Fold this protein.
Amino acid sequence: MDHSRATTPVTSRNKPSQLRTQPSPVWDGLNQHHSAETLDFVACHPEDFRLERLPGDAPDLNPEEGCNGVVKAELRNATPDSVAELRAQARASFVRLGHRHDILAAFFQHAGLRLTGLP
């Protein structure tokens, strides 16, 4: 498989080789994280990524679980008229959460991870 052309646009803002430090994606047991296509892509870009894998069934070690919990709590009483409206509400909730650096940092701290670089 030719990974020289990514399907996701790479910009100067998110291109790993232009970052000061190597990003460390933290992966849980999701099947897509272990697919041949994903592993091949990462293998073709060893200078760009350092993978951190979580043990199975370890939500306390995954900061993303805190984010998902906040969004689920906000949507608990939602009454969307369509799947599209539910997606829009979930997206808006994640965007709001993205502006709460204090909460995001707390999710990383809870997982025992140090986070730097947030304003």
About this structure: Residues 13 and 19 are 8 Å apart (CA to CA).
